[in-house]
Specification:
Length: 115
């Protein structure tokens, strides 16, 4: 059963922008804090940003001022607008609840930033 589907990744140059999308089932989306995570090669998966049902957001220090998380309830979609991308942002990006639920991990979307 597919619960989340991430999209929007790609290969970009440093300084470029991307917008990631995460379409989630209503069961997941409606009453929960949603989050974006990322996992770089050889590293653990890290929390990037969260957004509550009321729209309150929080960000990892490494992306503050560059990334913006948002949610569209009607579309059951969470977005991650990423500006001024850096090579260290290269990772597979996932969405999930916060705290994450093991069964809800999707395939993720690859973001590669070249210098």
């Amino acid at each position: 059963q597919v619960r989340v589907v991430e999209s929007g990744g790609g290969l970009v140059q440093a300084g470029d922008s991307l917008r990631l999308s995460c379409a989630a089932s209503m069961m997941i989306f409606r009453f929960n804090v949603m989050a974006w995570y990322r996992q770089a090669p050889g590293k653990e998966r890290d929390l990037v940003a969260t957004i509550t049902t009321g729209g309150t957001t929080n960000y990892a220090d490494s992306v503050k001022g560059r990334f913006t998380i948002s949610r569209d309830t009607a579309k059951r979609t969470v977005y991650l607008q990423m500006n001024n991308l850096k090579p260290e942002d290269t990772a597979v990006y996932y969405c999930n609840l916060q705290p994450a639920v093991a069964d809800y991990w999707g395939q993720g979307t690859q973001v590669t930033v070249s210098s």
